[in-house]
Amino acid sequence: MDTIDETLAAPLLAGLRSAVDAVSSVADASSGQCCSAELLAAADAARELIDRASGLLASTVGDIDDCGLAAGLGCASTAALLRHRHRHRLDPRVAKAWEAHAYAVRTVFPVVAAGQRAGLVSAEQARVIVAGLDNLPATSTETDRQWAQRLVAQCAAYEARRR
Q: Which of 40, 106, 123, 140 could form a disulfide with 136 if both were Cys (CB 3.0 to 4.6 A apart)?
């Protein structure tokens, strides 16, 4: 696939714009005028939003990489696209890290990717999981790697439910 299917991307973009508007409205409304237990619930909800958004970001960067969008826009790589074309002009190390993480999670660690999409594994947890699994001994079998991936993803999901 050379380009992103606009019929699939449009609902995603519309949903994201609605989410940004909703977060902006809530942020504007919470100007520090109240202090109650509801603030803890709001903090929990904000944390869940961050975790789910991190998963979406990883998935979207992976989709950008998979469909060859960078080459179609004249960039050498997805990292270069994020670095030069991204509206925030990402630091080169950050852009490369996003690309590498998206690739590793999507191609090597699908259980972690599923946990991120579900909001059960945060981006921070996913980075630690990927780094740990990358350091398994070379003698590890594929079965060992799959078992380890499921175990750490389940632990991260358990931690997410405890929050």
A: 140
| Other C-beta atoms lying within 10 Å of the C-beta of residue 70 | 20
Residue 3: per-residue pLDDT:
47
pTM of the model: 0.63
Q: Could you report the per-residue pLDDT of 82-97, keeping only the tens digit for each?
A: 887 766 567 788 888 8
Helix residue spans in the chain (DSSP H): 6-29, 37-66, 69-72, 78-84, 92-107, 110-117, 123-134, 142-162
Structure tokens at 133: 């699994």
The burial of 55, by beta-carbon neighbours within 10 Å (0-12 exposed, 13-18 middle, 19 or more buried), is given as: buried
